[in-house]
Amino acid sequence: MVSIKDVARVAGVSDKTVSRVVNGEPNVTPDTMEKVQLAIADLGYIPNLAARSIRSNRTNIIGIITDFISTTPYSGDIVRGVQDWAGANGRTVLLANTDGDQKREADVWRTFKAHRIDGVLYVAMYHRVVVPAVGEVSIPTVLVNSHPEDGYAYPSIEPDDFGGSYDLTQHLISLGHRRIGYIRLNPLLLGANQRLDAFLAAAQAGGISESDLVIRLGMEGPIGRETNYVHREALDILSMPNRPTALICGNDEMALQAYLAALHLGLRIPDDVTIVGFDDFRTVSLGLKPELTTVALPYYDLGWQGADMLDQLVQGKGSETERRILKCMVVARRSSAMARAQGQTVDAVGTHN
Amino acid sequence: MVSIKDVARVAGVSDKTVSRVVNGEPNVTPDTMEKVQLAIADLGYIPNLAARSIRSNRTNIIGIITDFISTTPYSGDIVRGVQDWAGANGRTVLLANTDGDQKREADVWRTFKAHRIDGVLYVAMYHRVVVPAVGEVSIPTVLVNSHPEDGYAYPSIEPDDFGGSYDLTQHLISLGHRRIGYIRLNPLLLGANQRLDAFLAAAQAGGISESDLVIRLGMEGPIGRETNYVHREALDILSMPNRPTALICGNDEMALQAYLAALHLGLRIPDDVTIVGFDDFRTVSLGLKPELTTVALPYYDLGWQGADMLDQLVQGKGSETERRILKCMVVARRSSAMARAQGQTVDAVGTHN
DNA sequence: ATTTCAATTGACGACGTCGACATTGGTGCC
DNA sequence: GGCACCAATGTCGACGTCGTCAATTGAAAT
Fold first, then answer.
1. Is residue A3 part of a domain?
2. Which of A189, A330, B97, B225 is the most exposed place for a label (fewest CB within 10 A)?
3. What's the CA–C1' distance between A26 and C7, in Å?
């Protein structure tokens, strides 16, 4: 591999001068600069970052630790946000996945430290409470899509599940819905409670009595291997004699199953029942017809801004305890509509849209 | 940061001896070894890989270049396969995303070279023909989920779209289906043609005349911004007076829309119509009820084996032109069933399952 | 002409690690 | 005892880069 000295020799200058050119330092004659640049181009010289980092104690590498990278399809957006930030700021991204395994996580930390990376973005693919397995030496770390357990101080950045869910519920109430069904996420996920709490709060604020709410558990069990009750529960809720006019699903994947259940029962969406989801997981939310009203999670921004927070931290400017919350926007699409008087029988075959 | 010399000083030995212990070299007294290990633990010493790589000219880092990492939800599995291989073989993974942009791609190559990584896995998130923008100096590269344009030699690893599609079609034929609908992928994708060709070949081999096949285009336009005709086409096909008894969709996302169309028309799956997909994108294939018969793409293995091929290449043992094809398995679930008599037309085959 | 000063360039060493080689001390053998 | 040999350990330098500081040059100021 061609080194700075090779360039120096070819250009007929000292290695230091080449270094100056490469790093854009001042006080280099246009003449020599040209010579050097020519030599660089000729030889295809590219600076060795490892060597550079040895001297500077900065690698410009940030690490991402994920738990279940491929299990959830959203993950990509967070990672992409980080990558784009990195690309825009001259950093490189080291990626590691733990599969939620403690031992692997420890290995990953060790490896990252061995690479002397500047900082770590600890990305939990489900919004929940985590404690990174930090060892003796510590690296600046920001938790993304999660927050630390009590007693541990890490800056974190999270989506505003509560706000999003509150707004979504309000959206339905403003459309005139007074009986609303709710299918819960796996309670292990932090978002699950926040979303449910917000739902209840918004319903109460909207003057809806608890008896008009139908709340069911959609999933439970360890993350990645949960049992799924959604389809069954949706069928059940939508078969009630006095069925809700709207059904909120813990996320879009659940909404998919609710759609199928509704269609299976011959109900039209949104004419007979409004169905909404959460996440704006676009394969589903745009794939469903009519397209799904849902709440967009700011995954990309979580990644981008998380990287930015980390950068602050690395530069000693960030706060050790900052907790940033990103807004979640309701995306109103065609699956939600005004509540209507509830007909008795509906023809199974509806109209095209 | 604590270095090998700090450890040496604390342990009362030379740095070289510490190096020996760290690297498991022979000829160290159990006694000294213990002293050294104690010092390492005390100080929390972790070897500096950058320094190591400077000497050894090996970084043990492999790079992944992706084009549309988050656009497609499968991507994660390929990356995870690579990561798991890396974890199992003491390598680290550097990740970069180009968004399909030439300029960014050039930057990425440059950055990777600057890091002196051992090799690159060029992962195209859609199976298609690519040419990595290699510069002057070249890094060992393996194409994953894609293959090089004519005239360029890179080893590659790809899924057997043809075989999978052939088997899937045969599966339907063996269930008695004689009129089959087919909704095509975006023709820009390499898999699109392979899957269609295999479908036609299998149909012909099964003695089905072309006039009993209904083939429609489901999507077209630039990747990431395509126009989607699937729902409309599915409605259209399933509304035909003499409609197919089975509908093959270019991928699972398309199958989702076909489901919705079928349900919308009051058709039951699989009783009235069999619907199958491709990809085994589990959010969809398991989320749909009944669960979707589809073809599993070996994404994880693509990643794992791709990494392994790359490793061979790096070690000078691999072939520059190997083209490895991984089998795609039909995953028969409940969305496909025996063809049945339908409406006006009577079909000989008519058992329930 | 001499001095002063700034601009330009180079020599050198250090970063952390490990390969090549040297040194030390002990063991076994005649 | 003398010698060969080997195990254990250390010394030194090089990898590629860049910070520090010195050297050189030329031009402006006196």
1. no
2. B225
3. 10
A chain contacts of residue B96, beta-carbon cutoff 8 Å: 83, 87, 92-93
Chain A: residue nearest B112 by CA? A92
Same domain, A102 and A226: no
- Nearby residues of A262 by Cβ (< 8 Å), 6 or more positions away: A234, A238, A247, A268, A269, A272, A273, A275
CA R_g for chain A: 27
User: Which nucleotide has the least CA–C1' distance to B54?
Assistant: D15
Distance CA A273, CA A262 (A): 8
Same domain membership, residue A132 and residue A165: no
Residue whose C-alpha is closest to residue A60's, from A43, A41, A97, A85: A85
pLDDT tens readout for residues B239-289: 999 999 999 999 999 999 999 999 999 999 999 999 999 999 888 999 999
Q: Strand D and chain B: which residues 25-84 have CB closer than 7 Å?
A: 26-29, 31-32, 51, 54-55
Domain that holds residue A64: 56-154+300-326
Greatest CA separation found in chain A?
91
Q: How far is the CA of A32 from the C1' of D25 (A)?
A: 15
Strand C at less than 7 A from CB of A26: yes
Show the tokens assigned to B252: 């699972």
* Candidate from A2, A84, A116 with C-beta closest to B50: A116
Q: Do B172 and B336 contact (CB within 8 A), yes or no?
A: yes
Helix (H, G, I), strand (E, B) or coil at B295: strand
Nearest Cα to Cα of residue A255 among A127, A168, A342: A168
- Decide if pLDDT at A1 tops 90: no
Cβ–Cβ < 8 Å for B315, B177: no
| CA trace torsion A256, A260, A262, A267 (10° rounding) | 120
The interface residues of chain A toward chain B in range 334-353, judged by CB-CB distance below 8 A, are 348-350, 352
Q: How confident is the model at residue B153 (pLDDT cuts 50, 70, 90)?
A: confident
Any chain B CB within 8 A of the CB of A93? Answer: yes
- Please indicate whether, in this complex, the C-beta atoms of B136 and A44 are within 8 angstroms of each other: yes
**Partner-chain contact A70 B80, CB within 8 Å:** yes
Instruction: Inspect the interface and report whether the beta carbons of A94 and B95 lie closer than 8 Å.
Output: yes
The reply to whether B136 touches chain A by the CB within 8 Å rule is: yes
Residue A105 is assigned to a structural domain of this protein: yes
| pLDDT for A352 | 41
Both A253 and A140 in one domain: the answer is no
Checking each nucleotide's C1' against the CA of A14, the nearest proves to be C10
CATH number of the CATH domain containing B41:
1.10.260.40
* Structural domains of chain B, count: 3
Which of B48, B219, B254, B291 is the best mutation test for A, with the most CBs of A within 10 A? Answer: B48
The CATH number covering residue A169 comes to 3.40.50.2300
pLDDT at A70 over 90: no
CA trace torsion A223, A65, A130, B84 (10° rounding) = 40
Q: Quick one: B170 and B285 in the same domain? A: yes
Say whether pLDDT at A351 is over 50: no
Residue pointed to by tokens 């392994």:
B308
B69, A80: Cβ pair inside 8 Å? yes
B267 domain-assigned: yes
Are residue A196 and residue A284 in the same domain, yes or no? yes
Residue B307 lies in a domain: yes
Residue-level pLDDT at B147: 83
In this structure, the answer to whether residues B81 and B123 fall within a common structural domain is yes
Reported confidence tier of residue A135, pLDDT bands at 50, 70, 90 = low
Are residues A64 and A166 both part of a single domain?
A: no
Give me the phi and psi of A305, to 5 degrees please.
-70, -35
pLDDT tens digits along A167-222: 999 999 999 999 999 999 999 888 899 999 999 999 999 999 999 999 999 999 98
Residue A274 and residue A316 in one domain: no
Residue A102 has pLDDT above 50, yes or no: yes
